[in-house]
Amino acid sequence: MGQTIIEKILARAAGRSQVQKGEIVFCTPHRILSHDNSAAISKIFKQIHAPAVWDPERIFIALDHAVPPPDERKALNHKIIREFVQKHNIKHFYDCGTGICHQVLPENGHVLPGTIIFGSDSHTTTHGAFGAAGIPIGRTETASVWAIGKTWLKVPETLKFVLTGNLKQGVYAKDVILFLIGQIGASGANYKSVEFSGDTVIRMSISERMTLCNLSAEMGAKAGIVAFDETTRNWLDNRVLHVHEDYEPLSADDDAEYKEIYDFNLEELGPQVACPHKVDNVVPVKNLLHTKIDVAFLGTCTNGRLDDLKIAAEIMEGKNVAPHVRFLVYPASKKVLQDALRLGYIEKLVMAGAQVAVPSCGPCLGAYGGILAPEENCISSANRNFKGRMGCKQDTGIYLASPATVAHSALAGHITAEA
Amino acid sequence: MKLEGRVWIFKDNDINTDLIYPGKYTYEPLSHIEQAAHAMEDYSPNFSQEIKKHDIIVTGDNFGCGSSREQAVTCLKYAGIDAIIASSFARLFYRNAINSALAVVECPQLVESLFEKVEKADSTRTDFSLTIDLTKGTIISESRKFSFPPWDEQAMEIFKSGGLVEFTKQKLSGQQS
Ligand code: SF4
Q: B29 vs A139: CB contact, 8 Å cut-off?
């Protein structure tokens, strides 16, 4: 019997030639990612009484969730992390302002095809865009991996999405993945790995594939993976060479066994929106009649990359956001910000009325940087619309959409995907 | 290994980690008591005051979906919850629960039978109890018996050690000796 991508990756990480679905295997990751939660993880790590971390070169920490820290407690949280990093010689530490962990990790060449990336963040699935298995784990488990370098995984079943057809103008990877979540539901891929394939995916850029894999977490997936191809190779070439590591591109066997194969032709798909308060509550934008918005949020690990800023900048060039709208822009990384400055996107966005912030998660997690007031609505390029997610639960609503829909809506003052 | 407790019914599917433990507290180092006080704050505002030690939650599909935040598990544990029975759990919540030695059991038949007892799709504190036998994989609820698939051996080992911290400690000391 042939093997799916996740089966091959787990076999490799466990030092085996094959694994069986449902089997428990012990795996060592290529990198283990954490962020502002590293302070809490370091406390658990202390309780374990490990003499040292297992491998200071494989631990990756980026400060991104509360940047710059809005209060004393969050500043102290960062301080604890810096002290831990120093004490344990953690090699891959990225301080405030470098960007969101899921952006900084691949940008700096840490994600290699065919490897496992563990992350103490639910959107670690993002790294499947590079043919790796990005597998989210909890804090205690992260502390345990820091100590012993491995943890157990159950070999999951795999769902395969075969996506075909050219997307219409104005329709993006975000619309595709929201549509798929709407189809299979918020728990549709629970405990399972997901493979995205088909000509639509093959044509997608790395950034678009990251959007797909990032949101596969919202179907409950353990990992969301796009197989290695020329696009991956071109993207990696400059980055991987500088860290001098080899990688092994893996793809699924033709006779691999899938739990389910879903075929979707996307030629007729229009822009989609996930309405409050569940990510699988998805409707075509055109069904939303005059939903007023107060905040438009462009950024996050889902859609805060250069192509996202470019799409918004081109839509907004020479125009102004609606007078009652706060338009927040959080580039996903310093590199994205630098490129967007150089290419003039930031200027266009600022001229249209954007409030551009330091690369970070911003209001995505509802702790700072643009919290909603009661009864306000937000159109957002993020990945979660849970009640209260943006800091206020009192009659607020978060609508998830593509950067293009966010930009059009910011200009119009209500949700729309048209100029 | 047996657990017995009074039942809370959360008659809903997809109760997410923000409802269990709001995101705004996630990056603040809160004590066990403080965490427990915020448990279910945005879903069942009276929960943290009315809960008794050893209470058991019964709920629908995909409980704990969303974030990887472990406080969603620990706030319930510190509040006194001994076990959660759901039709299904989100993967990360399930794993985090085992790692924190909070019993999580998937038993859709039991959930269905208890959901019939309450009308509103919301949080209800009941006055009846049930018994879970983790080793045998059975639940006794009002003299009806339900069974559920037992955990993987690895999960059971971690649970029995008292959670992953203790488990890893034992592993480390095993390596050294
Ligand atoms: S941008 Fe939002 S979803 Fe992404 S890592 Fe940050 S808080 Fe999480």
A: no
Angle CA A257–A124–A32, to nearest 5: 105
Q: Check A190 against B92: CB less than 8 A apart.
A: no
Burial A169-191 (b: 16+ CB within 10 A, else e): ebbbbbbbbbbbbbebbbbbbbb
Q: Which domain holds residue A239?
A: 5-263
Q: Maximum CA pair distance of chain B?
A: 58
Examine residue A268 and state whether it is found in any structural domain, yes or no.
no
Give ipTM to 2 decimals: 0.89
Q: Does A185 share its domain with A49? A: yes
Quick one: closest CA in B to A384, which residue? B66
Do A169 and A235 reside in the same domain of the chain? Answer: yes
Q: How far is the CA of A227 from the centre of ligand 1 (A)?
A: 24
β-pairing, A272-274 vs A282-284, is: antiparallel
What's the CATH number where A216 sits?
3.30.499.10
User: For chain A, how many structural domains are there in total?
Assistant: 2
Instruction: Tell me A348's DSSP state.
Output: H
Partner-chain contact A186 B68, CB within 8 Å? no
Tell whether A33 and A134 lie within a shared domain.
yes
Nearest residue (by CA) to ligand 1, atom 2, is: A364
Q: How many CB pairs under 8 A join A and B?
A: 127
CA of A15 to the centre of ligand 1 (A): 32
Q: What is the pLDDT along chain A (419 residues), one digit of tens a residue?
A: 899 999 999 999 988 999 999 888 999 999 999 999 999 999 999 999 999 999 999 999 999 999 999 999 999 999 999 999 999 999 999 999 999 999 999 999 999 999 999 999 999 999 999 999 999 999 999 999 999 999 999 899 999 999 999 999 999 999 999 999 999 999 999 999 999 999 999 999 999 999 999 999 999 999 999 999 999 999 998 776 555 567 888 999 999 999 999 999 999 999 999 999 999 999 999 999 899 999 999 999 999 999 999 999 999 999 999 999 999 999 999 999 999 999 999 999 999 999 999 999 999 999 999 999 999 999 999 999 999 899 998 999 999 999 999 999 999 999 999 98
Indicate which atom in ligand 1 lies nearest the CA of residue A365.
7
- Is the distance from CB of A12 to CB of A248 less than 8 angstroms? yes
CB-CB neighbors (< 8 A) of B153 in chain A: 24
Q: Which one of B27, B69, B90 has the shortest CB-CB distance to A77?
A: B27
When CB atoms are compared, the residue of B24, B90, B154 closest to A190 is B90
Q: How far apart are CA A188 and CA A201, in angstroms?
A: 20
**Ligand 1: centre distance to CA A360 (Å):** 8
- Alpha-helix runs per DSSP H in A185-292: 199-202, 206-216, 230-243
Q: What is the pTM of this model?
A: 0.93
> Do residues A130 and A44 share a domain?
yes
Chain B contact present for A190, CB below 8 A: yes
